[in-house]
Amino acid sequence: MAAALLRRTQIRIPLRRPSSFSTAAAAAAAKSDSRSPNRIPSPVPDPDSYYRYKSNIIFEFDPERIASLFVSSAHPPEVYKIFVSRLARFGRHELIERLVEPHLGGGGSSSDHDEDDQNNPKSEDFNPKSEDFHIRIIILYAHAGMVDHAVRAFRRIPDSGLRHSQRTLCALLFVFLRNRKLDLVLETFRSAPEDLQVSPGITAHNIVLDALCRHGDLAGARKMLDEMEGKGTKPDAVSYNVLVNGYLRKGDRSGFEGALKEMMFDKGKELFLTKRDPPLDLY
User: Fold this and answer.
1) Is the pTM value of this prediction over 0.90?
2) Who has greater pLDDT, 82 or 183?
3) Among 14-23, 123-132, 152-161, which stretch is predicted with the lowest mean pLDDT?
4) Quick one: which of 279, 254, 214 has its CA closest to 24?
5) Helices 147-155 & 166-178, crossing angle to 10 degrees?
6) Rounded distance, CA 201 to CA 170, Å?
7) What is the pLDDT averaged over residues 192-210?
8) Cβ(142)–Cβ(23) under 8 Å?
9) DSSP characters for 74-93?
């Protein structure tokens, strides 16, 4: 049955991806109710110039040159991940830090910041007082494998006059999940109500479910799913899909078919199979 489903089912990555830049969703399109209705959207780059600019980065093999491309010209938010991914591939974390930290107020002269203000679009993506800005930085560090930097960026959020929220919590959980730190996923999830005054929502639960499945603890994931509704968090389609994918990755045909039947027939949820990052709606 599993093999037949894989042949018949179109694999859909449950991530919202405007343009080509997202981790879990686009910076301009998170669904969190906590977001401001007056948020200034990021400008949409001209397709021709955007793809030309993107190609210049992808086909450049000198890390210093990549960094200079970032500094020397204005660029849309979509390009940030491309820069970070390329520099991380070369192991040049110090260049990533050099590019990112000035935006956090962690370095650079005032003239540097003035120049940045002139080059960068006036949107929430570049506003240190915006939750989206901090989430973007955290996720960029996550993709670069720079966990300590991501945690430091997370801890700086209150310094900007913002409170931690379910979205910032999910960003931190994603950092640990992305970098295979299951113990920190669980520890952060459990301590969030006391340490951050944030009660984890459905997305945070789904990240933990995915972490348990990826580390082979399907019994723990199954138990958590069964307990969620009793604790006031109703599992959604993502919750069941994470469990189904977990059984599939492990090759547990019996568990896969049982969870699939429960999801599609008992719960009426849609199936989508993915081997990518969990479906988050962070930014």
Assistant:
1) no
2) 183
3) 14-23
4) 279
5) 170
6) 9
7) 95
8) yes
9) ---GGGHHHHHHHHHHTT-H
CA torsion sign for 217, 219, 222, 223 is negative
In terms of C-beta density within 10 A (0-12 exposed, 13-18 middle, 19 or more buried), how is residue 252 classed? Answer: middle
Structure tokens at 138: 């955290």
The model's pLDDT over 33-44, given as tens digits with 9 standing for 90+, comes to 344 434 434 444
Every domain of the chain and the residues it spans: 17-27+49-162, 193-278
End-to-end CA gap in the chain = 36
What is the structure's pLDDT at 115?
43
Yes or no: say if 131 and 122 are a contact pair by the CB < 8 Å rule.
Answer: no
Q: How many other C-beta atoms lie within 10 A of the C-beta of residue 251?
A: 9
CB atoms within 10 A of CB 70: 22
Q: In this structure, which amino acid lies at residue 192? A: A
pLDDT in tens, 125-150: 556 678 888 898 898 889 888 899 99
Contact criterion met (CB below 8 Å) for 16 and 25: yes
